[in-house]
Amino acid sequence: MSWLVIGAGGMFGTDLVHRLRAHGHEVAALTRADLDVCSPDAVRRALRGHRPATVVNCAAWTAVDDAETHEDAALAVNGTAVGAVAAACADVDATLVQISTDYVFDGRGDRPYPEDAVPAPVSAYGRTKLVGERAVLDTGRGYVVRTAWLYGAHGSSFVRTMTRLAAERDTVQVVDDQHGQPTWTGDLAEQIIALASSDAPPGVYHGTNAGQTTWYGLAREVFTLLGLDPDRVQPTTTDRFPRPAPRPAYSVLGHARWAEAGLSPMRHWREALHAAWPDLR
């Protein structure tokens, strides 16, 4: 199977390309410098030139706070461009895997959101990502994979920030009232490879590691892996760190659709973090 990864220079795109090549797949990796995803003509030419069987669109406006004041610019990348990618995939009969986010939900729940839960984004970032989701789903083909709290060997992440702060400060304050699922890019890459290689029906799938914790709980686990006293991490609340974009208080995602498609969901977040740790230092 031949693959085309758009946005291949980011944290997840880099790991996905590495995993695909490790599995022996033919991969074309296009970074932001290689492809202007906001140009429908450029997208169409790229897909016609490569003729992939599967396209994974990792390109996104991910500056959540900046999207509040630049929603049109974020929409161009997260929404309009996704529609162009979906149309180009249909043109060459390629399967599209679109990466989306937990921010399409309002975060006011108290139990895992199933894949068919009604989205209700409360931030500009979430609204623009939802437009991209609908552009894919309206085609009746392809996959939307929602993920959250990503960390990996490349690029910036909360895990890397905690590792740095552990060396710089005696204590760190971390919010303990936002609940979610830390997700390793390596596990997400393997899950997407399995999904696109299967006969799973098109639609929405939740690509997060299992279990749940808070940012505070994750920070304590990072300190433990560093061999440091986890009590150096002190709990605090979101209102102590006001940000332009609201953060979901609860964005735990359910994984029922994997079993329905005959695929195993991703392992527990703590197990994944321990497996990833050698590559995160």
TrEMBL record:
InterPro entries: dTDP_dehydrorham_reduct, NAD(P)-bd_dom_sf, RmlD-like-bd. Keywords: NADP, Oxidoreductase. CDD domains: dTDP_HR_like_SDR_e. Its EC number is 1.1.1.133. The keyword Oxidoreductase applies. Pfam families: RmlD_sub_bind. Catalyzes the reduction of dTDP-6-deoxy-L-lyxo-4-hexulose to yield dTDP-L-rhamnose. It comes from the Bacteria. It is an enzyme of class 1 (oxidoreductase). SUPFAM superfamilies: NAD(P)-binding Rossmann-fold domains. Residues 1-276 form the RmlD-like substrate binding domain. It comes from Actinomadura miaoliensis. The keyword Cell division does not apply. The gene is rfbD. This is dTDP-4-dehydrorhamnose reductase. Belongs to the dTDP-4-dehydrorhamnose reductase family. Coiled coil: none annotated. Pathway: Carbohydrate biosynthesis; dTDP-L-rhamnose biosynthesis.
